[in-house]
Amino acid sequence: xxxxxxxxxxxxxxxxxxxxxxxxxxxxxxxxxxxxxxxxxxxxxxxxxxxxxxxxxxxxxxxxxxxxxxxxxxxxxxxxxxxxxxxxxxxxxxxxxxxxxxxxxxxxxxxxxxxxxxxxxxxxxxxxxxxxxxxxxxxxxxxxxxxxxxxxxxxxxxxxxxxxxxxxxxxxxxxxxxx
Length: 179
Hints:
It is a single chain. This protein has two helices and two strands. By secondary structure, it is mainly alpha-helical. The chain is rod-shaped and about 110 Å long.
């Protein structure tokens, strides 16, 4: 039974190493899923900003139409004077809002991509960490096994030979028998 202990220890180390590899792989998979979610959130946020830009454009169009209608109802030329100036002001302010929304859209989308990339890198590190831990466990087990060794063996020939004395005072070699 004692001779089997080193082999049992090595088997346990191999199982432990396999578990470390699987843990690293699972952690990497989790980071991969988080990365996909971060990318999706970035795209969703970008879509909100795109919708905000469309809403701004709709408001600008409505404002310009309202200015034209009111000017026309008051017998004022909607394409000259203060009515025209109001339309241009509404258009300029709307263009600024749309530009900001488009910039925010880009920032949100790229931010999601950057977060996803960072999470994927963490996943790769977790996977490598699991592999290195497994290799370390196996190397440590191998070193322990080398120290323990196998069954005991004599260090030199005739080491277990003892000389027993016979009743007459002469000694005769007795291989393997310790007296």
